[in-house]
Structure formats: C-alpha cells, structure tokens
Design goal:
The protein has a single domain (6-379), classed as 6 Propeller (Neuraminidase), CATH 2.120.10. 3% of the residues lie in helices and 36% in strands. The protein has helices spanning 127-133, 239-242, and strands spanning 6-9, 21-23, 30-34, 40-45, 50-56, 62-67, 81-86, 92-97, 99-100, 103-111, 117-124, 146-154, 159-165, 170-171, 191-192, 208-214, 219-224, 229-234, 258-260, 280-284, 295-299, 311-315, 340-342, 357-360, 366-370, 375-379. The strands form seven sheets. The protein has a five-stranded antiparallel sheet with strand order 9-10-11-12-13, with no helix packed on it. A hairpin with a 2-residue loop joins strand 9 and strand 10 (103-111).
Length: 383
C-alpha cells in the first residue's frame, strides 16, 4: 500500500520514540497508523475527504474531521463541517455536522478527558454587522465578514454545551459611535477589530487554525494566523460568562488571558518584536512530558524578514499555579524569546508555507510535520 509520507529521524544522539504514528493524508479517505519502518499497522476508512484534524483517544478510537461541500465556507482553506469518532474496527460511533450558510467548523478540534470535543467555527457576522461594530468599511470586501467562535460538543447527546465568540471581545478606535470604542494599547485583553490593516481574503478575518485544551488549567489555546499570535482563554466560565469580562477561574470571563507572537496587534510593539509568521498548531506540552506546561508552535515563517524558513518554537508562559498570566503596564507579554527552537541549517533548507505541526514525545524528542510535503521528522533537544 503506497504511503505519501517520508519519515526522517534526525535525532543525532537519541533513538526515535517507540510506538505508532497517526497519519491522515488530506487527499485520502484513509487514516493510518504507521510503525517506525512505515508499515501500515491499522487503517480507518471514512466516507468523505478528511478535514485538517485527526486524533487518537487513549482507548484507540479515532476522532477525525471531514469536509462538507456546498456552503459558503466550503471553499476556504482549512474547511471542515463534520467530525466523527471511529471505533478500532472502523464503525462510526457518532457523527456531528456543524455547517450552514452562516457558520462552518474548520481546521482543528481538541479533545477533553471527559470525551467532549472543542471545534473551531467560522461565523459570518456580515459586512453590515462588522461596520456597525466599528470595522473600517475599506477593509471589507463583499457582503460577508467571517469571525471566529469555539463550541464544545457533548458527543453523547449531540449538544453544544459551551460557546465562546471573538465578537464578544472586541476593541476598536475607528468609530466613536460604535461599541467597543477605546484605546487599543490599553486593552490587550481584547482584539482589535481593524487589525491587521488588510482586506481579508474570502472575508476570513482571523484565520484561526489550531486549538488545544489544558485540563490542568481548564484553558484553551488557539492560533490566529492573520494576527500572527496565539491566544489563551478561560474555559471554566459558563457560556454567559464567556460572553463577558468577568467570571470563571480567571475572573476575566472570556477575555484574552494571554497572547504572544506579535505585540503590535495590541499596540505594544513594533515589527522588530514580531516572533510569529503565519504560524500553525499551537499546543501545550502535556503533564509528564519534558517541558510540561510549556507551549509549542510551528512557526511557518512566511514573510519572515530573514527569508522564508520555518521553525518550531517552545515558550515558557508567564503563568502562576492558579493560571494567571503576568503583564506589566504598557509592556508586552513575556517571554522575550522562545526557550527552545528548532530550525534547519541553513534555515531556508526547511520551509513549510502552510499546514504543519509539532508534538513533544515521551522520550523528550519532538515530532514535526512538514504538512504540504508529507514529511515527518523527529528531532532531539540538541536539534
């Protein structure tokens, strides 16, 4: 059976992590488990092309997104629409679709230990709605304007049990008569409705592309490519609290608790402070693994000032045991730089303009996927 992936082990002083690797090619209905010799150990076959996310549960079940066509969001990069859970024998245990003319699940999902699933969702707030909220009309093309929300699905009931919306956490300095009018630099907990100063392609303002959940912190982290940032929010809130600015363990409701990668997005930096360049796949390193609690990001490196090259960056967030993030008045969020990065030599030898991901392994190595080219690499801490 042909596999389109190449598996490379570039760990110089350590052996590869023992075990199996899950691969879900985007142009195939099949998802595979591969051993270190690239033998196919197990296959699941779906009835539709996959989306951008596939995860294994501890019991061996596969949870995978899939594409649904025929809707406005179906042509967007990273579109999905559906998510399914497969048993080991390939039977579909449940199937959930979240797609309509004004909303569309996309890119990534995150699993909870209790079995629930978080989904990233585009929602069309419309051109008129965006202008009413304070968006500069010159930064809108067409009748749609797609924002972002997160829903939490209980697969046992098929119910959405929690929701968070970007649209509830905006600041803008364009229209004094619109909601959220304020000083951008004074509100790092909110998202500037007019950033970046560009007309978004297909109306996809933010292009969030990954999500992860920390059961230890009861927080969610997501990657926003168009802001060149990662964001952390509180999940301990009710849906009503998530729509506001108080409540939950943080006491801040659904406001942004932490953001990193491009402080100019909240008016506290310059281009020289920018760290991310259209990044993907931000994850917390899980408990019990080397670097537990740190954050990993695949930094694609598009429009990087030093050239087109990709890196994997590990951050130590300024968080205390209660999940609070420190931020000095007028400053940008720490750290000033990653604690560890991997890139090739020369750096331009490794570049993935889109997709791609990263995962810390039990042996301390790091698994890297070069998504557009079907490469999997495992590197040790020495690079």
């Amino acid at each position: 059976m042909p596999i389109i992936f190449s598996l490379l082990f570039v760990a110089a002083q350590s052996t590869p992590q023992d075990g199996l690797t899950l691969c879900a090619p985007m142009d195939s209905n099949d998802s595979y488990l591969l051993d270190l010799s690239l033998n196919v150990v197990h296959t699941w076959t779906g009835s539709a092309l996959p989306g951008d996310a596939a995860y294994l549960r501890e019991n061996g079940n596969l949870v995978r997104t899939y594409k649904i066509s025929g809707y406005p969001g179906s042509s967007f990069g990273g579109s999905g629409g559906g998510v399914q859970e497969f048993a080991w024998n390939g039977s579909v245990l449940w199937d959930f679709q979240y797609v309509a003319n004004t909303y569309h699940s996309h890119h990534d999902i995150a699993l909870t230990p209790a079995g629930n699933v978080f989904l990233l969702v585009w929602e069309d707030v419309s051109r008129a709605g965006a202008i009413a909220a304070g968006r500069d009309p010159s930064l809108i093309q067409g009748s749609s304007f797609w924002s972002e929300k997160i829903i939490e699905l209980d697969p046992n009931t098929g119910s959405v049990i929690w929701e968070w919306r970007v649209w509830d956490h905006l600041v803008q300095d364009y229209s004094s008569s619109s909601p959220g009018y304020g000083v951008i630099t004074d509100n790092p907990q909110l998202l500037d409705l007019n950033f970046p100063q560009e007309v978004p392609g297909q109306g996809d303002w933010l292009h969030c592309n990954s999500i992860d959940y920390s059961p230890v912190l009861d927080q969610l982290i997501m990657s926003c490519r168009n802001f060149d940032e990662i964001w952390v929010i509180d999940h301990s809130t009710t849906t009503a609290e998530a729509a506001g600015h108080s409540g939950g363990n943080s006491g801040k409701g659904g406001d942004i608790l932490y953001r990193w990668g491009n402080p100019i997005a909240y008016g506290r930096g310059t281009n020289a402070d920018r760290q991310f360049f259209q990044q993907h796949d931000t994850t917390w390193i899980a408990d019990g693994l080397p670097g537990a609690g740190n954050i990993l990001v695949f930094n694609n490196g598009n429009v990087r000032p030093t050239g087109a090259w990709s890196s994997v960056d590990e951050l130590v967030p300024p968080v205390d045991t209660q999940g609070n993030y420190s931020l000095l008045p007028g400053a940008s969020f720490e750290p000033s730089a990653p604690v560890w990065s991997w890139f090739d030599s020369p750096p331009t030898a490794f570049f993935a303009p889109g997709l791609s991901g990263v995962q810390r392994l039990e042996n301390g190595n790091t698994l890297i996927t070069k998504g557009p080219f079907g490469y999997l690499l495992e590197v040790d801490s020495a690079g």
